[in-house]
Amino acid sequence: METTPQSSPGPNDAVAQLEAADLARQRLAADLRLPSGLHAWLGAAVAVQVATAAFGIAAFNDDDRNAWELVLLAAGCAVFAVVALVQIARFRRLNRATVGGWVSQAVLGSSNLASVAYGGGLAATMWAAFSDHPVLAVAAALATGAAYAAAAHHWWRAYRSDPARHARGASRAFLAACVLAAVVGLVALLVASR
Amino acid sequence: MTGLDPAIHPPVRLQLMTSLTAVSSAEFVHLREALVVSDSVLSKHISALAEKGYVVSRKGVVDGRRTTWVSLTRQGERALRGHAAALRALIDGVT
Lengths: 194, 95
Known about the structure:
The structure holds two protein chains of two kinds.
Chain A: H1 11-31, H2 38-60, H3 67-95, E1 97-98, H4 100-107, H5 112-130, H6 134-161, H7 163-166, H8 172-193
Helix pairs in contact in A: 2-3, 2-5, 2-6, 4-6, 5-6
Chain B: H1 11-20, E1 25-27, H2 28-35, H3 39-51, E2 55-62, E3 65-72, H4 74-92
């Protein structure tokens, strides 16, 4: 079954082979579609998660702290997790393919743009929540969601222009380290707010 | 044939492996449609590449139907890069 070429291809054959291979890759990448409403879902989930985290931690800072504040915090994380898992499953079903880079960079927000949008947005929302400006906190959470969704859209455009460069996702070790850092950060915020 | 990998040399295999660099994994059916080849031809090439450790295929179930997922291995990526570099060298008249 193994094919052993008898002779080297000429330069023209080599050009044709590389072009055909690139074309096949571009065709496959171009056929991939995002699930409908993806960015709206993602932005809304991030806005909910950021808002619940900020309000939950700020409320936990009060003298009359209650268990619901922690429940609120956990609920926000759960909303994001469910939305992310559903979107990943929809993408896979729609395209009959998986793209690790899309999952880690666009959905889970490990791209530079998404990380800055999320980090900055969370900081601004928490500042507003701690300063007792609830309307401002909600606005900051919504802006964070919108920026996160825009970062996901930006990643997708970059992927479509150079799929091979962006297809690979972050390693499991890196993602595990990110989750660990998030948990440690959350615990540190809770401890600091007591 | 300096640098050219005989296992990747057939055009369908080069196209298959190059296409797989755009995804983490793809369903057999999707690849068959993208490469416009028959089930048996694609299956034969995947088996040959899997034998070399360049791709892996695993069975799965999607919406109740059995399917096969194919992905490129790290070893396959390296082999593909080497093969593509050898083709470019041929184009540049280096060899």
